[in-house]
Amino acid sequence: MYRWEITRTAVEQRVFAVVRSDTYERVTAMADTLLAAGITSLEISLTTPYALDAVATLRRETDEDCVIGAGTVLDASAARAAVEAGARFLVSPALDAEVISTGHRYGVPVFPGVATPSEMVRALELGADALKLFPASGHDPSWLKDVRAALPQAPLMPTGGVTVENAPEWIAAGAVACGMGSALTDGDREAVAKRVTALLQRLEEAGAAKPAGKRGR
Fold this sequence. Notes:
By secondary structure, the protein is α/β, with parallel strands linked by helices. The protein contains 10 helices and 9 strands. Helix 7 (141-150) links the parallel strand 7 and strand 8. The radius of gyration is 16 Å and the shape is globular.
């Protein structure tokens, strides 16, 4: 798949799960629960022990409809290692030109972290495929709507502090997708399944409510 195709698939549901834990076993179990619940886009944080092994395992055990990426990618060496492990997209909490260029060298989209309009413009100049607004907890959907009025070309993905309750508000304000961690993963498999089902329905409705030509997809 081309970078733009991977990006489109990664944000198709308007949410991607941020998966991190303190062991390989827990992160893969968490990923399995989310996939079984219907989530198709997962970011495995490199802060997890043996995270690259988890990426490789999930890539082997999922089909092309599931997009497994690597998160907390801080430098070019981590980007290269993640791509070699099978990550189909790279996410970073910061804006680093070498992470973007490394991902693109191997045909992998990169979603760097940005916090200001200046960083958004710089990331777009560097060729970022989408922009991780981080941490989203420092802003609210009305702020993103104001930014999008000036930068309608910026594909923003709020992450960090996004909840099941406010995720639809972020989408309605113009976000292309939301990154969510414990807000999705807390609880047993049944609780996660119910939460994911309800969230996907609410996000679909929020996306459909956007004005024509501004659906963020």
